[in-house]
Amino acid sequence: GDRLNLLYWSGSHLTSSEHEHGLCEDEFRRRCSSITSLEMFMNSLPDPHCLADFPNLCELALHVQNIPRPVGLDRLTRLERLCMTEVRLTTMEGIEHCQSLTHLDLSSNSLAAMDARVLGQLSRLRTLWLNENPISAIEGLAPLAALQSLWLARTA
Known about the structure:
Strand content: 15-25%
Shape: globular
Helix content: 10-25%
Largest sheet: 6 strands, parallel
Distance between the termini: 43 Å
Number of helices: 3
Structural class: alpha/beta
Order of helices and strands: EEHHEEEEHEE
């Protein structure tokens, strides 16, 4: 498929060079499914939809990207830690699929509101960092019984 042209396995890291390190589709999918932790930064994620190729991720960190809306997370049901910092998020919608989350860091984005519907689906959440967002009201925290740490520094 088209997504397979985006990332290729090379030794212990992913690369975008098909000619240098290309794999057949079955081998690529097998290796993607074995990855449990992934960190990408500086616009290295060409299409967030390709995250669905990593169904066993437990930790995902995306920094300095252009992802205004969380996409590709609906198959990441094992995800426990999600960091999306400086990715230009304008909504939390899409994160509600990650119901195993215990840590969520959405710092330094453009979130104007805390989405109570999304937060209501994250009952295992222990850490929530929303600092440096233009959030004007604190809301949606009532269902978060496990929440131990909330960071809202430098919000609106």
